[in-house]
């Protein structure tokens, strides 16, 4: 009770003093007018609001410390967020209110100074005008500058030509696969034909080659030979029903990481290699034809042979260009 | 020979029919004297009543989409269970994938309609049909979580998403794994239900499988700090969502603070 009374007294005292300050302010204004008029005194409500917001921000900040110190409180993450976020929000609200209502604002225009010596400036302008140009072969210099600029510009964009369809793009078509190269599994061991099982899929690389080359990885699946419907010229490409395709999707170059394997083919969609990025779906039985999705061309197939040691070997290079489609590579969708 | 087998099958079905009369509300056909049967008898009776329509007599499978005349009411179609083994039977029965309302539907997780004794009897019966694999016993506590995340990203996340919430692939829905038990995860990896490829022990070793199971169990109970988790897909999406929402707040704040230029 006593404390409340004291607080009330302090408040009344503060209000009286405030009144005195306002009076003093007005008095001072009358006595010596300042350069910039100070404007009307700030409204009491705005001052109180700013003070209140600042105190509230302090309360939230203290709350953060309390939550931090007391480990047994539940949902601490949320309370941390509310306390710290609330403190900052209240602080910024206080600053905004102060800026809007308490800070004196006045726009004062300041004129450019007058030119100091107009006669001398005019004289210099006249000298420059009358002195003329030193150049006698102006056209030649402009031409030479133009030629140099054009040549340097062309030189800068020349490397881009190697991307274009007009010049040699063999480097892009090149893959590490050669006839007779063994298929190496992800475990680094040669892939034996009789170890390749149906209903699952494998990733393989050419031996001795960089795995990171776009033409390196192939996805290997085994289908019942009766299910294969390869084009006639690829009839020998699938020994024991094992087929291999580039693992790089022809749409955007993602890895073909999914194999759709029907448990019971008569009632479920047929086996398919699927790219997880945009669900381009390729039919391994027909030589990698697109059966769904945005890919524009078939998955390049790698011909396979089984060596005398039972290891799968490449029978040549891919049936088409490996990698994502662009420009002229993208052909019409096979139907 | 074939005709004779069909006749035999018809006789077998007819013999099973008197026992399989009580059709329960759940659609399960149960023998009337269930308590009196030995587990293997019970399994055979339940198989005849609930599975043989699609999977054929003694698990031979039915491969023709047309109804076959003279084989009772056998008109569905389903794969052979000769070498499915206890592993597949345990998976399909305990997840409620089977029995399937219509052959050709994608099986989905549902309430198990068989009692525990019936499930065990059916598993034993299907296992007795051929030489299938046993029910695997994963040991997730021996697995490594980081290895599990790596393997899951490599083999599973393409369809199931990295947080194992499932999704859609061409031709199928991908189930979320939130209710999968360790044994079911291990079984699914080895079986490859529906369109999922199966992974042999060469693809995923038993030790790797333990890690994989451990990771999937983590996704079922991810470390949760509360609030809006956005599917627990990580701090980057959370930050993106926060910025998306914060942008509006920031623009509104700018409009409060700022003032139009007087022209």
Please, could you describe this protein's structure?
The complex is a heterodimer of chains A (335) and B (263). By secondary structure, chain A is α+β, with helices and mostly antiparallel strands. In chain A, 36% of the residues lie in helices and 12% in strands. Chain A has helices at 2-31, 44-69, 76-101, 118-131, 138-157, 170-173, and strands at 183-185, 201-206, 218-222, 242-246, 258-260, 272-274, 281-283, 289-292, 301-302, 304-306, 312-314. In chain A, strands 1-2-3-4-9 form a 5-stranded antiparallel β-sheet, with no helix packed on it. In chain A, strands 5-6-7-8 form a 4-stranded antiparallel β-sheet, with no helix packed on it. The radius of gyration of chain A is 41 Å and the shape is flat. Chain B folds into 2 domains: 2-127, Cytochrome Bc1 Complex, Chain D, domain 2; 140-220, Cytochrome Bc1 Complex, Chain D, domain 2. Helix content of chain B is 46%, strand content 5%. Chain B contains 9 helices and 4 strands. Chain B has helices at 2-19, 39-50, 52-55, 85-94, 116-127, 145-160, 182-191, 206-220, 235-257, and strands at 20-23, 29-31, 167-169, 172-174. In chain B, strand 3 (167-169) and strand 4 form a beta hairpin. In chain B, helix 6 crosses helix 8. The longest helix of chain B has 23 residues, at 235-257. The N and C termini of chain B lie far apart (100 Å). Residues 10-24 and 70-74 of chain B have low confidence and may be disordered. The A-B interface holds A 75, 77-78, 81, 92, 96, 99, 195, 197, 199-202, 257-264, 266-269, 272, 274, 276, 279, 281, 292-293 and B 63, 65, 77-79, 103-104, 154, 158-159, 169-172, 191-200, 202-203, 225-227, 253, 256-257.
């Amino acid at each position: 009770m006593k404390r409340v009374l004291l607080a009330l007294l302090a408040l009344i005292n503060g209000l009286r003093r405030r009144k005195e300050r306002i009076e003093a302010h007005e008095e001072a204004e009358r006595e010596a007018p300042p350069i910039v008029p100070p404007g009307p005194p700030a409204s009491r409500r705005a001052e109180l609001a700013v003070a209140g917001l600042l105190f509230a921000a302090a309360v939230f900040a203290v709350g953060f410390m309390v939550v931090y110190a007391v480990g047994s409180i539940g949902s601490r993450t949320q309370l941390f967020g509310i306390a710290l976020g609330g403190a900052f929000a209240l602080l910024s609200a206080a600053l905004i209110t102060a800026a809007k209502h308490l800070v004196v604002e006045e726009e004062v225009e300041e004129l450019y100074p007058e030119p100091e010596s107009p006669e001398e400036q005019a004289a210099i302008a006249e000298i420059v005008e009358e002195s003329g140009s030193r150049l006698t072969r102006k056209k030649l210099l402009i031409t030479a500058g133009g030629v140099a600029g054009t040549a340097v510009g062309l030189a800068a964009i020349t490397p881009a030509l190697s991307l274009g369809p007009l010049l040699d793009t063999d480097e892009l078509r090149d893959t590490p696969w050669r006839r007779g190269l063994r298929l190496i599994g992800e475990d680094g061991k040669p892939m034996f034909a009789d170890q390749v099982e149906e209903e699952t899929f494998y990733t393989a690389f050419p031996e001795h080659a960089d795995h990171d080359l776009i033409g390196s990885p192939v996805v290997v699946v085994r289908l019942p030979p009766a299910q294969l419907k390869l084009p006639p010229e690829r009839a020998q490409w699938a020994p024991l029903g094992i087929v291999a395709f580039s693992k790089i999707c022809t749409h955007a170059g993602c890895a073909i990481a999914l194999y759709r394997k029907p448990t019971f083919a008569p009632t479920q969609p047929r086996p398919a290699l699927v790219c997880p990025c945009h669900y381009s779906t390729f039919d391994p039985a027909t030589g990698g034809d697109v059966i769904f999705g945005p890919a524009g061309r078939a998955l390049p197939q790698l011909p396979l042979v089984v060596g005398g040691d039972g290891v799968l070997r490449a029978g040549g290079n891919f049936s088409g260009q490996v990698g994502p489609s662009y420009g002229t590579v993208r052909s019409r969708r096979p139907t | 020979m074939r005709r004779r087998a069909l006749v035999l099958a018809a006789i077998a079905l007819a013999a099973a029919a008197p026992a399989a009369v009580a059709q329960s509300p759940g659609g399960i056909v149960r023998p009337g004297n269930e308590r009196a049967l030995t587990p293997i008898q019970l399994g055979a009776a339940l198989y005849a009543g609930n599975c043989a329509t699609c999977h054929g007599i003694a698990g031979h499978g039915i491969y023709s989409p047309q109804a076959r005349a003279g084989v009772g009411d056998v008109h569905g179609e389903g794969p052979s269970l000769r070498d499915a083994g206890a592993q597949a039977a345990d998976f399909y029965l305990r997840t409620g994938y089977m029995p399937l309302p219509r052959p050709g539907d994608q099986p989905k997780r549902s309430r198990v309609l068989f009692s525990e004794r019936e499930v065990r009897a059916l598993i034993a019966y299907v296992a007795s049909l051929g030489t299938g694999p046993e029910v695997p016993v994963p040991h997730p506590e021996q697995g490594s979580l980081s290895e599990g995340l790596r393997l899951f990203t490599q083999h599973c996340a393409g369809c199931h998403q990295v947080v194992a919430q499932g999704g859609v692939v061409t031709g199928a829905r991908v189930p979320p794994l939130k209710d999968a038990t360790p044994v079911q995860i291990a079984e699914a990896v080895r079986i490859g239900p529906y369109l999922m490829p199966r992974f042999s022990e060469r693809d995923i070793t038993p030790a790797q499988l333990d890690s994989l199971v451990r990771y999937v169990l983590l996704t079922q109970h991810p470390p949760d700090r509360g609030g809006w988790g956005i599917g627990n897909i990580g701090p980057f999406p959370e930050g993106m969502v926060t910025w998306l929402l914060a942008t509006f707040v920031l623009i509104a704040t700018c409009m409060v603070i700022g003032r139009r230029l007087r022209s």
